[in-house]
């Protein structure tokens, strides 16, 4: 008998947050100095290149969002430990509300302070990837594609080998999330190119939609699930 899953694992929530994840990566890269909000591997590589070239000030430019990402993970764990058993508000909802507040602040940070904006966006992305890690029972990420691509391809192989419909559904789910991330990146590139730094406000639509799903639907496991 299948276990009822927490609503945070709902595909609608995952799709909306993945759209935001792709959007934020292109937003920071285009309008905030060529830094990736989500892809810390990319920032680490770029930092390494700057260090190799002796451009230490530029290396710090990429190191700052990496530290912020770490801080975001720690913050979510703190919120989770404090509010996991709170009957009035679930920690997933509180995490999303904090992310939305940060996005509003970022929209009003001028380009001369891009480092501050990148710190906050990386903090938001870390909170999202740490807070929403499962999709219909399967591990996934809303802010990066490498792990999803690996898992989707693994499930595809399993389906081709066994003809297990469950594996096919898992593969389609992972590939669907990747396509949504790409769509978010495209939308982010277009709107950021047209509007500039305030284009980040469009992320609020996806975050608000995910928050609405979390607040509207309930499952029997809501109180017990982490």
**Number of separate strands:** 2
Name the structural class: mainly alpha
* Side-by-side strand order of the widest sheet: 1-2
Q: What's the domain count?
A: 1
CATH class: Mainly Alpha
- The secondary-structure element order is HHHHHEEHHH
Share in β-strands: under 5%
Number of helices: 8
InterPro entries: DUF1275
Transmembrane segments: 59-79, 171-191
Pfam family, one: DUF1275
Keywords: Membrane, Transmembrane, Transmembrane helix
Outline of the structure:
The protein is mainly alpha-helical and 226 residues long.
Would you write up a description of this structure?
This protein is mainly alpha-helical. The chain has a single domain, classed as Up-down Bundle (Growth Hormone, Chain: A), CATH 1.20.1250. It is 70% helix and 2% strand. The protein is built from eight helices and two strands, in the order αααααββααα. It has a two-stranded antiparallel sheet. Strand 1 and strand 2 form a beta hairpin. The chain is globular and about 50 Å long. The two termini are 20 Å apart. Keywords: Membrane, Transmembrane, Transmembrane helix. It holds the Pfam family DUF1275. InterPro entries: DUF1275.
């Amino acid at each position: 008998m299948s276990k009822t899953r927490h609503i945070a694992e709902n595909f609608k929530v995952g799709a909306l947050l993945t759209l935001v994840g792709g959007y934020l990566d292109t937003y920071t890269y285009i309008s905030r100095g060529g830094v990736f909000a989500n892809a810390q591997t990319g920032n680490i590589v770029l930092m390494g290149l700057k260090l190799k070239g002796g451009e230490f000030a530029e290396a710090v430019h990429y190191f700052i969002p990496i530290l912020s990402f770490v801080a975001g993970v720690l913050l979510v764990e703190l919120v989770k430990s404090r509010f996991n058993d709170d009957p009035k508000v679930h920690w997933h909802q509180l995490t999303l509300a904090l992310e939305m507040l940060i996005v509003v602040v970022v929209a009003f940070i001028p380009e001369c302070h891009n480092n501050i904006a990148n710190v906050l966006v990386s903090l938001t992305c870390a909170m999202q990837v740490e807070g929403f890690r499962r999709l219909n029972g399967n591990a996934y990420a809303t802010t990066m594609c490498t792990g999803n691509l690996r898992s989707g391809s693994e499930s595809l192989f399993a389906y081709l080998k066994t003809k297990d419909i469950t594996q096919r559904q898992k593969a389609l789910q992972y590939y669907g999330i990747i396509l949504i991330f790409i769509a978010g990146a495209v939308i982010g590139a277009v709107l950021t190119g047209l509007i500039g730094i305030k284009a980040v406000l469009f992320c609020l639509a996806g975050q608000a939609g995910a928050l609405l799903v979390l607040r509207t639907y309930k499952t029997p496991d809501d109180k017990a699930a982490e």
